[in-house]
Amino acid sequence: MKYALIGCGRISPNHIVAAQNNQLEIMALCDIVEDHMKDKMLKHKLPESVRQFTDYHVMLDVVKPDLVAIATESGKHAQIALDCIDAGCNLIIEKPIALSLKDADAIIERAKLRNVKVCACHQNRFNKSVQRIREAVEMQRFGRLFYGTAHIRWARDYEYYARAKWRGTWEQDGGALMNQCIHDIDLLRWMMGDEVDEVIGFTDRLKHDYIEAEDLGLALIRFKNGSYGIVEGTTNIYPRNLEETLYIFGEKGTVKAGGEAVNIIEEWRFSDYLDDPEEVKKECHENPPNVYGFGHTKLYADVIDAIGSGREPYVDAKAGRRALELVLAIYQAAYTGQAVKFPMEACSTMDFAGRFDGGK
Predict the structure, then answer these.
(1) What is the rounded CA–CA span in Å between residue 355 and residue 129?
(2) Of 10, 15, 115, 267, which is most buried by a Cβ count within 10 Å?
(3) CA 203 → CA 52, 135, 164, 214, 340, distances in Å?
(4) Residue 32 burial by CB count (10 A; 0-12/13-18/19+): exposed, middle or buried?
C-alpha cells in the first residue's frame, strides 16, 4: 500500500514509525519546510527513493498514494483532507479532525461520496488500559454509569509556542482543550455513551499571555443516559507534565487510568470479581517514551485492515467530529455563560477570536 505523510513536525516521527511497523510503502514526505523532511529522512533512515515535496497538490498528482496521513497545523487539516479525498486517498488525520463542525461534516460527506476511509488519529483509544476499560463498558460491568472525569494536567512553556507560531491561535489551533486535552475528552465521551445532552464550562488564559486561546478549561457534561462528565484541562502545571487521567465511576465498578497519558491502570474494582485487579494492572501497564504513547502503530494496522475489508476504521471521522464538537461546546458555553445543548450544528474556533484580548 503506497503511503505519504503531509506535515513533518513534532508528531511526524510517530506516523513514520507506525508506517514502517506496518510495512507500508513510504512513497513521499511533504512539508513546506524542506529541512523538516531532511531531518526525518535521516532520523528514520528512509531510503532515497522516498520523494520530498513542498506542495501536497503536486505530491498527490505525482505519487498517487493509497493512504495519506495529515499531520500539519490543525487549521489546515480540513482543506488538505478534502483535496486528498478528491484524489482518491484514504486518510489518517491527526487530531483535531478540523476546527469547525462545517469542515468536519464536509470531510465525512466527501469521504462517503468518494468511497474512501477516514480515520481520526485518537491513538489513545488503542492503549492497553483504555481497551480494557472499553471492554468493561461494553460488558456492562459498571452497571449504571454515574460519572466520569478527564484530568489533563500538562505543562507548555514559551519555547513550545515559539517553535511554531500557529500554536495557540484560534485560526490554526485553539488552546489547551483543543490541542493537548482532546484525546482524553474523546475517551470520556466515548466511555460515557457518546450522546451528550448539555455542557457548561469555563475557559481562561491565566499564564500564556502570548497566545490567543485558553490555557485552562473546566467543564461539566450531562450525557443523555443520565450520567455526568467532568473535564479539567490545563497547560499551566509547574514545572512539567503531571498526568492525563481518566476515571469511570459506576454502580458496580470504579476504574482509574493514569500515568502521563492514560497508559496505566491505577484502580480496578468491580463487584463481579471477574478478574484479579493486580493482574489487570500488570497486563495494562505501559511506559511510553512520551505523551503520544504506542497507539499509532495499532491505529495504522486498524486503518489498513479497514481499507482492505471495506469496513469503517475503529476511530472513524464521525468519532473525530464528536471529540471536536465537545471541545467547541465547552468553548461556546464559556463564551456565552450559558449551557450548550446538543447536537451542535455550527461552530468554529474562529467564533472565539479575541476572547481573551478585549475583543468579543
Answers:
(1) 37
(2) 15
(3) 40, 33, 23, 6, 14
(4) middle
Query: What is the tally of helices (H) and strands (E) in the chain?
Result: 12, 14
> Which of 171, 217, 195, 186 has its CA nearest to residue 316?
186
Provide the sign of the torsion angle of the four alpha carbons 101, 106, 109, 112, taken in this order.
Answer: negative
Residue 342 grid coordinates: 446538543
Q: What is the 3 state secondary structure string of 133-165? A: HHHHHHCCCCCCEEEEEEEEECECCHHHHHCCC
For residues 151-178, average pLDDT: 97
Place of cell 469547525: 100
What is the edge-to-edge ordering of all strands in the sheet holding 25-30? Answer: 51-53, 25-30, 2-6, 67-70, 90-94, 118-121
Banded model confidence at residue 359, pLDDT cuts 50, 70, 90 = very low
pTM of the model: 0.96
Q: Give all domains of the chain, ordered by start, each with its CATH number.
A: 2-124+296-316 (3.40.50.720), 126-289+321-352 (3.30.360.10)
100 Cβ neighbours under 8 A, 6+ residues apart = 78, 346, 347, 348, 349, 350
